[in-house]
Amino acid sequence: MRARRFLGPSLAHRLRVEAHAVWLAVRDPRTPPAARLLGLVIAAYALSPIDLVPDFVPVLGLVDDALLIPAGLWLIARMVPPALLVEHRATAEAASRRPVSLAGLAMVVALWALLAWAAWHWARVAWD
Questions:
Q1: Inter-axis angle of helices 82-96 and 11-27, nearest 10
Q2: Residue 102: its pLDDT value, please?
């Protein structure tokens, strides 16, 4: 754990903060329209179940996500004014340090379990 202090935040943490900052910048009216449009395209690609290379293709299916999304974030960061991006990075970093609600997690897991049980019960009754 001591070495982590010298290495800085993990790559996953930095990508999460950067993605959140870009999301905040895309929603900001001070951001240029081209950057906003590109940000929406990158978000749609990241959340879409359709990829350029399907995920079931070994290695290549995940490499396109691992390259295109960070490249898109980098490009958007180059298009947004630096002062604006610094502001949104600070907001995103502060949001990443907030405590996680374990009670909220438990409620979501319980809701999904209840929905799964209800679907199973409905299917069992319907097909008997």
A1: 120
A2: 84
